[in-house]
Amino acid sequence: MTAVVRPVGGSEVFPDGATRSTVAGGVATSGRPAFGAMGALSVFGFFVALLAMASLHSVLVNGQFEFDGLQDRLEYGQQRSQVLREEVARLESPSRILSAATGRLGMTPPPNRLYLPAVVPGDPLHPLPAPSENPFSLQVR
Amino acid sequence: MSTAPAATTATGRGSSRDLLRIGAEKRLKRRIVLVGFIFIVLSGLLGWRLVELQIMEPDRYLERGLAQRIRTVTLPATRGAIVDRNGVDLALSVPRRSVVANPGMIDDPAGAAMALAGILGTDIEVLEERLSSQRSFVYLDRQVDDEVADSAMALDLSGVYTEPENARLRPGDGSALALLGRTDIDNNGISGLELVYDNLLSGINGEMIVEAGLGGSTIPGGEYRVEPAEQGLSLVLTIDRALQFEAERLLADGVEAAGGKGGILVAMSPSTGEVLASATVTRGDDGVVRPSTEHKVATWTFEPGSIMKPLTMSAILETGTAAPDTVREVPGSVFVHDADFKDSFPHGTEEWSVADILRQSSNVGTILWAQDLGEEALYRQLLDYGLGAVTDMGFPGEARGILTPVGKWSGTSLPTIAIGQGVSATPIQMLTAFATLANNGRRPAPTLVRGSLDDGGVFTPIQTAEQIEVVPPGIARNIVSMMEAVVSDGTGTRGQVPGYRVAGKTGTAWKPLAKGGYGEDRDEVRYVASFAGFLPAEAPELVILVVVDEPARKTYSGGRAAAPIFADYAQFAVRQLRIPSEFERTGLDQVGRVMATTPARAFDLQAAEEAALSGIG
Questions:
Q1: What is the pLDDT of residues B377-401, one digit of tens each?
Q2: For residues B535 and B500, is the Cβ–Cβ distance under 8 A?
Q3: Which of B89, B172, B581 lies closest to A85 in CB terms?
Q4: To which CATH superfamily is domain B241-321+381-402+418-576 assigned?
Q5: A95 vs B92: CB contact, 8 Å cut-off?
Q6: Does B216 contact chain A (CB < 8 Å)?
Q7: Residue B125 and which of B185, B289, B452, B475 are 20 to 30 A apart at CA?
Q8: What is the ipTM of this complex?
């Protein structure tokens, strides 16, 4: 094995007869390792970019999924509110109250009606509150 | 150092091996060239195909790709609700499911029909016929309850599935049905207010275009366009649900008690023309009186009879023909043209004032004054009250009534029209005429709708026609005073409401027979009994008309058949509308005494007070 002593700067004659320039300090003179590092870096960067894109896409998919879910919930909520609205109106309807009173509760219409006076002592903006407990519950009775 | 190859000699075993090797290399080269050529050709073909797909005809494939991914979803507009004047739902759309099928995917239609029949409550034969159809889509049952839909799905039948739809429901059952009308199964208005305001209630469907992947999930970043549906507006009626229900209930009871064929009760606020309740009942073939599906308040006409007299009297007073206290001799009968007219009760010649004539509901006295008034003046006055023309309500099928032009009047037209025969009007026309008297002589435009309400709760009132002055306020007040006497001391005493001054008029009209005329003998004659009145007479807030069609003979008069219904209903209505009685008005002047209210009403009052304060600020 032959050791080659490189001068600082200048040119050097290689065994194949070609003359190539060298740089000061004896730093590597060939382009091949630099290209290799760049290539490796590029490949690494490419994969990092791919990974980032995949992550971003995953976030996007999650967001879309959540959005779709919220929309479904909103639609369901709106439908449910309509159903409940109808149920409230039906429960409050005088015909249902009358049929429940005369049917299930066994009430009978009075022979004469007595209307309460419409003018009472008090404050029109703050009427007496409704009873807090269910007046028909067994406990109250 | 290079070495020149030795000259080969074609002799010996080594030479033949070389020849073989050279031959093999040549074959290999040829194969490589061939395979390379094949690859080049294949690559060329693939490349050409790519060029063809990507450059030469990309649209076709783009469309096919999009068709697979792009989903167009119709966003159905929900039909607006119909609410009463207090915001209570009278009709609204509720999501339901329809059970549908793709018959092509059903292997055993008979078995599927048998399984579904019990759940859907439909005949097996009908279901089997539908499931055996050649079509790709059939309805098995529409807008079913969730339990039914779930039970049908639980059968797990291939080709049977559900589709969402909106069903139109009326939470108050049949109450106000004639007024509200109906929609067909596809939610299009077909009668009543549902038909009149169909455009306003319907809304406009929206559309969502979305790029979706397998399973229908949205592709993020893909095509996504939404044209939101314009929801139908809610219609706010002038009707009060409680007043409507009670009107139907009391009217049905009253018609039953009077032995009538049917009846009408309609109530209005005289200052605004807003109809608060509009009830029609009829006696069915089974003899039961129940709410009618026809809104006869606007579509039915009747000869009003004596409730026409206040209108005739207002013309007499307005033209100065007479004053309320002008007295004249009123005989027991009067002969006009070729007919003899009598009062409903026998009497000799009496000295009666105009007010007395109205209080006693004297036909003879009214006819005598009408003759002094003249045909033209009476005709014009009745036209001004709105008779012979449809109202501004715009209800489908509304009748005009019959008020023949003066030129076509016969010799008996003046006397008969003056007492409400030979002329026909709808109940809403007569109610509006009485509302005119209650409203200081200004005729309000009757209306069933206050306005519309959008999704955000913004209320838009509807435009109502201007009020028209029919008679001067002084004349209207005179007529009201005369009508008060009818209730306090005349034919309408059964229309009294405790605590309130009531002005009203009874009517007992002969009903024209289908063959013409009113009937020759007593058994043939049919009546229409009515009572129109308002209260409190000193400042009317509520006008009510009650009509009983063909009451039984023992209760055929307006005073007996209709006035009690008026009184019962008015008692309830004044409480519901918080109209204080005479006594309560005095109480209201005292410190610390207020009109009783409900939490909902208190909320409205508070909102109104805040609005007024912010307006001042």
A1: 999 999 999 999 999 888 888 999 9
A2: yes
A3: B89
A4: DD-peptidase/beta-lactamase superfamily (3.40.710.10)
A5: no
A6: no
A7: B185
A8: 0.74
